[in-house]
Amino acid sequence: MQVIIFDDAQHVATNAAEWVAELINKNPKPVLGLATGSTPISLYQQLVNKHQAGQLSFKNTTSFNLDEYLGIDASNAQSYRHFMNENLFDHIDIDISKTFLPTCAQGENPRTQGLKYEEQIKQAGGVDLQILGIGANGHIGFNEPTSSLASRTRIKTLTQQTLTDNSRLFDNNEFQPTLAMTMGIATILDARYVLLIATGESKAKAVKDMVAGPLSAMCPASALQMHENAIVLLDKAAASQLEDQEYYQWAHDQNIKINQEFGLYHNY
Ligand code: PGA
Questions:
Q1: Average pLDDT of the chain?
Q2: How far is CA 231 from the centre of its chain?
Q3: pLDDT tens digits for range 91-143
Q4: What is the DSSP letter of 139?
């Protein structure tokens, strides 16, 4: 796991945007895994800025989102489709028919829909770079604690902590879904690169469990310890419970030198 600590959330977003831009500029048919939540909003803003400045085209990009709520449809302002349109897709030149979310409409079988999503990812050639946030309880996507580390796209019941964490986004009388479709942990681990971004003190404990804790279904993000190319971008607050901060900084400095000498070692 490559842990990189920045002074603040803005620098995290800037660096994350560079990873995404590099993939899109290098790969003729990039497949991007996308996340929702508060954390990636400034990343998406930076991508929109790059696009509007004529530096980045998403024309050949296919995207797969991590998750989507059940019980509300795409027209609902709380749906993750709506979030993606509003924060990214409406402002860039991506072909909207190549943007996928793991949906399950009323009456559809979640098992069939999960298998279909896995197949769509496969048909696209697999995810090159998966963007991830992390829940305060260590979830990635909506893979809540106790999720199977071998899980695939399926329906999940959200935990009380996640419902409480996300209740800030819902009005008092508004319906808050308790079920979601989510890529599984094995689905996420299949991505060639994963880029997890976390900012703020509220994520510090989950970040510590992910990076330094035991590999455990109780912290689904700890499964990233098994990934060959996992990059974790943190601000100082999210990194505050990590014991080896000096080492991560030193290792990052060495990586920059190695990259300068031999070119970027990641190969999208
Ligand atoms: P947040 O959500 O970015 O809104 O904190 C992250 C997550 O739950 O994965």
A1: 96
A2: 11
A3: 999 999 999 999 999 999 999 999 999 999 999 999 999 999 999 999 999 99
A4: -
Report the distance separating Cα 127 and Cα 192, nearest Å.
6
Which among 117, 92, 135 is positioned nearest to 222, based on CA atoms? 135
Distance 141 CA to ligand 1 centre (A): 9
Pocket of ligand 1 (CB under 6 A): 37-39, 133-135
What's the pLDDT tens digit per position in 197-253? Answer: 999 999 999 999 999 999 999 999 999 999 999 999 999 999 999 999 999 999 999
Contact (CB, 8 A) for 65 and 175: no
Round to whole Å and give the CA distance between 130 and 194.
5
131 touches 32 (CB < 8 A):
yes
Mark residue 200 as left, alpha or beta (left: phi above 0; alpha: psi -120 to 50; beta: remaining). left
> What is residue 96's DSSP assignment?
G
Rounded to the nearest whole angstrom, what is the distance from the C-alpha of residue 253 to the centroid of ligand 1? Answer: 28
pTM over cut 0.90? yes
pLDDT in the model for residue 262: 80
Active site positions, annotated: 67, 137, 139, 144
Strands 193-198 and 99-100: unpaired
Ligand 1 centroid to Cα of residue 27, in Å, is: 28
Measured from the Cα of 35, ligand 1's closest atom is 9
